[in-house]
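User: structure tokens for this one?
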Amino acid sequence: MFSDTTTVWVLWPEIALAALAVWIYVGNALFRPKPNTQTRLGWTTFAAAAVAFAGFALYWHQGGAVWRQSLVLEGHGPLAIDYFAYAMRTVALLAGFLLVLQASRAGENELVSEYLGTLLLAIVGVMLTASANELIFLFLGLEMLSIPTYVLLFLGRRDGATAEATIKYFFLSVASSAMLLYGFGFLYGMAGSTSLTEIRAALETSSAADGGLMTMAPLALILVFAGLGFRIAAAPFHFYAPDVYQGATHANASLLSILPKIAGVVVFVRLVGVTMPALGDFAWQLAIVLSILTMTIGNVSALWQTNLRRLMAYSSIAHSGYMLIGLAVALAASPAEAATGGLSSVILYLFVYVFATLGAFAAFTYLGAKDREVNRIDELAGVAKTRPVAAAIIAVCMFSLSGIPPLAGFWGKLALFGNAIRLATNTESATLQWWFIVLAVVGVLNAAVAAAYYLRIVGVMYFRTADTALPSQGGWGAWSAAAAAAAMVLAVGVLPGRLFDNAQRAELAVKGIALPEGLSQADAPTSLAK
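Assistant:
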């Protein structure tokens, strides 16, 4: 078990970021000048520097004493300090840094410090979720993300549409948390422990005995899927997303697309993909059904959308369906296929989705102004002539989201569909073959459908003429975030090997599998939650 001082040391990046977020609140209250551009710029710079400092602290930990000493958790503690946690915390900080830049003009001037401080706390919530190895810690991390999100939605814009979106998200989020907590209660009752390691051992023992706890495990799995399905906007728990996205600002819609998705996928991987594979056919069949339903509803519904944020909401839903393909592969793989790549494809796809989506929303933010957001697809007409760089950034992100090679999204879809096909061709089970071949075919067809609405945005920018030019007053922060996200999409598309390797390391670590020869403990730490 970690000592108190070691726990503080391991969570130092999160503690530092939370402390700096509190200072933004306190500092602005103590030294609040008259709201102006310099105040907003100063707090944005401070918030970005705080995220960068947390990133430096995390990197220092990964290559420093914590990893070199090979700290091993005796028993089953609340933290899982492995390469998966490190990777997801890194993604959260990278995305958080760009979200801070995008939000440089978010909220009213007098509330900018409150907005940025709350955004930092939401990032801390995602990071805590990534390191959780027991149910209470998982739930607290998710709530530390959810509660700041309510505040951020309210602060984004003060009008009726935003208030309605905030209320919808709040009540539905509370309901989803209740379902998730109910599912956690079943797991605790079955295993007698909140530790994910002990829950897995109890389920495996009960499965081997063909009975016992397994009679209640399917109900627990359904409740967990319901609670987490809301976080990642997976059908049939997606219905809030289009209305909430449409009523939010571009900055808040970007946040909703990214931070809850990261946290939800992290919990799916740790709790479902690693802890509950002993549930057998029911688990992977449920994941396949939800995957097909989610991606199909998302892509088909997006075809006739004219509002940008509403379209991107359905896009977010569809991509959740794609990620469930990898989860289904991981749940269906036999113990002999432990390194199947299902979870690594989910991790890889999450990365490419996050930055393509963030880049698109940041570009939309840049093209608008405080009193005029870019709301409809038609408003992007002629942007290729008036703002060619912004149009190119949006085009790169749209092409990546649709999976057009050689951009990052292509490699993400290739990994997901490829692993489904590989599992279908390498198994002797006719049932597995049929299910996963159908899943792969439906996934490819959905990718083709999705290309229609992504390319429609590109077509409007490049092949239609604008009546009036967009204000393009979103600020340097939004432009920088969009450019950085697009650059990452291009870099991963051209050189995907490093991301594939890191995703595979994360999967091995979260499963507790020994690292391949040649990798040192400092290079890729093994799980400390074993």
